[in-house]
């Protein structure tokens, strides 16, 4: 009986192992099929990317001839690697970067360069690393970015890519040495071509492009340098070790200086940008409510260039929000922003804000017509003004809640008033106000009413998203910060906290107080 139970246990173990291997194989094959389909889609959408990948591999093979041809290598020596590095860095599909330079950031870069320069000045350190010390200096120059998230992301990408690329480069060199001296450069050339082509093509994958593009670039560079340098170097392992150590020293200096010397956090910039866009949108809606009662001023409001610049700034902020959210994920917890802060929720709020901004942009193109029935016209003006004003106030209170990281009012009085005003507007539109009115005059009124109702829905969705953010990010209670309703009356002053080149053009409008009993 004991023997039979032991056999059953062995059979059960082998069955479980077989099932695990089967599941793993199935999952692996499905992943490979998905990657192949994605690669096929990229190649089909833009065949130039495939050709570009092959061109990078070809260019690396061409400059590698400086290593293989003895007279050329005798002239340039170890400086031949700069030709290889130039190909990897310069050979880009597109080159576009906007990097604002700040005085403090420039000083921080100078400080980091001075720290790694100690590797040259201190004799024992220079004796250990020799000429490879330049890799630490070069790492500081290319890794140090304006924000902490960008610096950490580039530093980790460079360190890991150097480690993996160096290890595979050593493996490629030892593999090619099996072919002997005549076949060694040929085999190295084939491996470099395959690796460079595959790595460059993988860089076009959206997820890889977003977070690991620089790492793939350094991986290609390191693999090529280590594998090709082995053709002329006697101690390739020591060369790879020294380069890895100096690169890690340079990256560490960048991260330390970036974090501890006047840090610039991408997460904070994203936080302020989302709050600022909400406040700007609230100002526009309140401005529309204030100018809606005077057709002449409304015309000026409609044609005001500053209004269009402000709305376009909101509509064009998606790319910047995506970049900041991507960089913020690299940053450690700091201040009120905990580790694994819900940065994706900011993107959701930003998308909803842009949807609302599109309605506001359309709303700005309409004027309130003068109908024959002055009393009805008066009621329309007041209804539109109430909806627009309460929507703007609700957005500004939500912006303040995000900026101060304090829970928004529950229930929000402005959202409640906005819903009431929207309901009154719907009831008024269902009445018989347009019986004796020209159809051409009714159409703009119906269009404005439809846009305002859509804006109300957008504001409600934004409020739900902000409440979700408050829950995920553990916003403080209103009572814990001396909040309350008085905090909703404070103006959101975010403009002076953003860089000068990002301060938007905002319309300043003296808003009159409108009531239902007013007449024009």
What report would you give on this structure?
This protein is 73% helix and 0% strand. The protein has 520 residues and is mainly alpha-helical. The protein folds into 2 domains: 47-260, no CATH class; 266-502, Phosphate transport system protein phou homolog 2, domain 2 (Methane Monooxygenase Hydroxylase, Chain G, domain 1).
What's the alpha carbon Rg, rounded to whole Å?
A: 31 Å
Number of domains: 2
Distance from N terminus to C terminus (CA atoms, Å) equals: 100 Å
Class from secondary-structure proportions: mainly alpha
CATH level-four homologous superfamily name of the largest domain = Phosphate transport system protein phou homolog 2, domain 2
CATH architecture of the largest domain: Up-down Bundle
Main beta-sheet annotation:
none
Question: Summary?
Answer:
The protein is mainly alpha-helical. The protein has helices at residues 2-45, 47-68, 70-76, 81-90, 103-121, 123-129, 134-143, 148-177, 180-202, 206-211, 213-229, 236-260, 266-291, 295-303, 305-315, 318-328, 343-363, 374-404, 413-430, 439-472.
